[in-house]
Amino acid sequence: MMNGRGLVNRLAAALLALTLLPATAAHAEDGYALWLRYAPLGGDALARLQGFAPRVERASGTTGGPMLAVAEAELARGLTSLGAPAKTKGSIRLDCPRAGGDGDGSFHIRAVDARTLVIAGADHRACLYGAFALLRELSLGRDPRAIELDERPAMPLRMLDHWDNVDGSVERGYAGRSIFDWWRLPDHLDRRLIDYARANASIGIDAVAVNNVNAPAIFLEPRFIAKLRRIADAWRPYGIRVFLSARFSAPRDIGGLATADPLDPAVRRWWKAKADEIYAAIPDFGGFLVKANSEGQPGPQDYGRSHADGANMLAAALGSRGTVIWRAFVYSAEDASDRAKQAYADFVPLDGQFADNVIVQVKNGPIDFQPREPFHPIFGAMPKTRLMFEGQITKEYLGFSTHLAFLAPLWKEALDADTGRGGTVAGMVRRGGMAGVANVGSDRNWTGGHFDQANWYAFGRLAWNPSLASEAVAREWAAQTLGRDAGFLDAVTAMMLGSRQAVVDYMTPLGLAHQMGTNHHYGPAPWVCDLARPEWNPCYYSRADAHGIGFDRTASGSDALAQYAPSVADEWRDPKAMDEDYLLWFHHLPWDWRTRSGRSLWAELVHRYDRGVAAVDAMAATWDAQRSHVDAERFADVAEDLKVQQREARWWRDASIAWWQSLNGLPLPAGAAPPAHDIDHYRALAFPEAPGI
Amino acid sequence: MMNGRGLVNRLAAALLALTLLPATAAHAEDGYALWLRYAPLGGDALARLQGFAPRVERASGTTGGPMLAVAEAELARGLTSLGAPAKTKGSIRLDCPRAGGDGDGSFHIRAVDARTLVIAGADHRACLYGAFALLRELSLGRDPRAIELDERPAMPLRMLDHWDNVDGSVERGYAGRSIFDWWRLPDHLDRRLIDYARANASIGIDAVAVNNVNAPAIFLEPRFIAKLRRIADAWRPYGIRVFLSARFSAPRDIGGLATADPLDPAVRRWWKAKADEIYAAIPDFGGFLVKANSEGQPGPQDYGRSHADGANMLAAALGSRGTVIWRAFVYSAEDASDRAKQAYADFVPLDGQFADNVIVQVKNGPIDFQPREPFHPIFGAMPKTRLMFEGQITKEYLGFSTHLAFLAPLWKEALDADTGRGGTVAGMVRRGGMAGVANVGSDRNWTGGHFDQANWYAFGRLAWNPSLASEAVAREWAAQTLGRDAGFLDAVTAMMLGSRQAVVDYMTPLGLAHQMGTNHHYGPAPWVCDLARPEWNPCYYSRADAHGIGFDRTASGSDALAQYAPSVADEWRDPKAMDEDYLLWFHHLPWDWRTRSGRSLWAELVHRYDRGVAAVDAMAATWDAQRSHVDAERFADVAEDLKVQQREARWWRDASIAWWQSLNGLPLPAGAAPPAHDIDHYRALAFPEAPGI
């Protein structure tokens, strides 16, 4: 039985803990805290932390600085919130002698004795990343004195690309408005940008391109450089360098020159002066991200120059100070052969011509962030060029922020793919990096859907270490963000892991792609066939008619297959032997073609649509059973979104099946439900207000 | 000295209080809580509340219901947060027998004995408003047992108009994105909309028009009615009815008709059916807000019909169920006489022709929400018509959300004005109401600038009771929102009260108006004189040249003065005798004209610009001295904004003076500082990214 004094102490401690709680934890569970929620530990994990009871201290030789201060503040915040007692016994020692964050951030964590855990590395960046890693481990309930980590990043650039416009809109943004309030910068810096930097640092993100690749030149004007400087200053302690999307025609647009020809001396001087001006304001400016000669953007080809000419000119302007990231996402209005082949055809011949500080950024697949694509054939085909993997975190093609789709398995499919040319895709970007098109916005929960936070998290974790398993990433995210109950984590992790395949199944099964509505990309529109450029039309991708469906990319068709290494091409050449997930990507087949299941192609297609719909129903049921494990607020939000997803999965399935039936005249396979409406109903739907355009 | 048990009790109570704290109060002070912060009381006020220690109970005869539940929940939340003890002694009795909220919301609060305070009125709406009123009084530190209130609203409609677009942008919005996420409705209702309703209910707002008056017809489509229904259902317990801005040409745009002629039987049937459709979904739908034949919007004049024909047709469609609010903000492309005269000329002849359920909505002044205008001459001139006062809470013309300008004095100038026709402006709208163009958005603090919350608050309070003094409103807002220290409140209230005059002085002193930049209305542009329509140009309003400045609206000029009652016109006819705040609104005068100060008009103008700049400097100094009284977060936000305002006040002053000098060639008065730049500098500034267009 407790005496008065003991009770006083207990109550006083409880009071203190509440007072010290990070603001977010005591706040309504609106999702703002992300995975940095540091919910109080319980049971054995709490007892172990209380037994350790660490204070944070510096090793001799480690001095303070802005980045170390961030690490120390985060440890204090996290430890308190997790439940570490105020009266300390053990210690966490920060041993990162070099001030600043120039190193690669490699760190190790280990116990040097029963009471001392050390986070060590070359410089403050190591302690920054180590602090977040330690808090993650603690948050997962690990025994603090048994934690041993030895980590180094797999690639130098781990980046987020914002497609944010100057007016606050976000291209392909489904989470409110841009987090960058250009209008009020530099006078006012929204606190949100600090929490954004914290979240990024916690997963090792070290670079952010702040503006849309379809950028106006205004971002290069002096008053915008002042705005960017305020952001760069705020993010520097979090180890994040800013990049700017640069409009290639800027010398003409705002520089008063008559040309933007990259070989013109006046153009070269203009960019050099512009780079000098930026570096005077932002000494660690990351560099330029450029979308050139693609979808109407200006570029070196306007002057008969190559992508290498353009990129190298900008690289010379930056010099050793920064990097040009040049996007390989190009397809030309004139080439009607196969859009999937064009980036390879344009870029591979340039291998070896790019300057050392140029990185070519290549999308995960050869078309455009579809629910499933084979990996991009450029990976492995440009050994003398630094390459970067571009993934899309925002779900332009996977149900916006309303559909639950965990994307780690999508990225892993590409990253783990053996290129057949000396390594995996992940190995091919180890001198470059990974860039993800950001999914954050002004919504209080950052990403619109709560589970979309997991995609931001997973992208950062995979850029740090592409060999992490999707399951491990899902589980650690859910445990930090939602709750730690083991049964809950089993259920939610399984739901997350199957979610992307569900989207593939109800939207574009069996290797189909690009069947969505025009411009906004909302909902199914496989019937669209009248847009000006052939490759803008869903019919271009499905090639469906009365006889069959699919895009022949073998030697009898576009022969895009030949862009892959022979060992890879061999995997996909024979429709009978291949992984049917890519079947219609590479082959045009008759409707009655026999799939491995024994079903006809038509029946298999319907089967997969139905499987996708059923999977979403199962997800909704899974979630519904978790009510007791999640706060009411987020539980209801997710449940609402899943209802939408159930409805829209059916819409995709029904509209697609109705359209294919209108072409092939086939009856539905036995047991398959007819579409809820006729094809005219689906074709008549219009959504002029759809977001993200 | 306290024994163990006493300490335990104290600590336990503190712990409980912390636990029960509303989420927002324990959260970072980001402004989300608005004036419903319920910061814990201290000192005598806390002791009095603890001595009263009320529980909330219902009088016999008062039964539960959604609206009463809101009142009860808010009382519980507020009392706990203010510091009422868990162990109760006294009681707050809710005595509102009729369920629902059909009444006008009149309530009284008084003690029936030493332990019992009663909130009473006809129906649940009375208890809703009474609950918020009681919490306001308690939050201001009043002795609970001495509170005696007897309140009734001054007018039936107390309304906010949102100029929010379907894509999430907000016309003249400076606080982020729209709070209405039309895309995700009706599946998802943002919790923010509930807190918005709470805040509105707390100040007596009972109606909200959810979409921009420049509305596309899409809002009348069935799927948008479903979205609106979700909002209406959510707001009903808070006593708020939804209104929809309706596009007059909807029968043509979406109805398949060839005309929108209000006298066409098919058009009348279409609107009747549309109204029936809306009422089937929303039984208490408020009605339509219409901007017709103004700034390019369609209207009855397109068919040779009058505003009354158009309004009455819609009124017939609504019937007794709802109200048509018809805006008097019109000016025609053809009439070059004086824009200030046109609404009067168009509408006054129609007095007596409008149906009983039509309200004509009239802006506070005859032009357009300028920093200062005389009251609109329609007020008092349409005795047979229900009128509504339209004010602009969002600061389109008063520095966006970055300048601190408390608008109660602006509205009060109009509301308190004697029309000379049997009452004040406030009296003229007692059968109609007041509508304010909302200033809220997705920014975490709702309004962009923290002090802009005060304008939302003040608008609601004045609509409830226009005879409240600006000072009282400012003080009660600041006490609830920022802090209760008396010295702090003296300083901040004084700063707020002078702030709007400061804007008038540095932007458009002495009755000048409409001198801002084209389209975005950001910053000074008195030189603009080349826009297509004369009344779009600042030069149209200043009429400045080498010889003088000002708009002659006397009999020798446009004679707009004649639209006012003779007693009012007499006040403004003689420039020597009149209030010089309106001088150049009504008179064109030579630069060397002698003002009452003894200074020439030119010297007086410069003096007032300087006075405005000095006032902002003084505001910044006042705020800087309050550091210890406000949380660090909001202190810094406001200090940053005031820096911007100091810079922009100088910009307005310098650019204006430079321009007038370029016209009049006069030297600066002795002691006046020359503009920082020459006129070409100011004319060259461009802000293509300015918000709110």
TrEMBL record, chains A, B:
- Tell me the PANTHER family matching this sequence: ALPHA-GLUCURONIDASE A
Alphabetical UniProt keywords: Hydrolase, Signal
Entry GO MF terms: alpha-glucuronidase activity; xylan alpha-1,2-glucuronosidase activity
Coiled coil feature spans: none
Q: Which residues form the Glycosyl hydrolase family 67 C-terminal domain?
A: 447-671
Look up keyword Signal and say if it applies.
yes
- One GO term of the biological process aspect: xylan catabolic process
The protein's name: Alpha-glucuronidase
Does the keyword field hold Transmembrane?
no
What is a single cellular component term in the Gene Ontology annotation?
A: extracellular region
**Signal peptide range in chain numbering:** 1-28
Biological source species:
Sphingopyxis indica
Record-linked InterPro entries: A-glucoronidase_C_sf, GH, Glyco_hydro_67_C, Glyco_hydro_67_cat, Hex-like_dom2
Instruction: List residues of the Glycosyl hydrolase family 67 catalytic domain.
Output: 142-446
Instruction: Write down the SUPFAM superfamilies for this protein, in alphabetical order.
Output: (Trans)glycosidases (SSF51445), beta-N-acetylhexosaminidase-like domain (SSF55545)
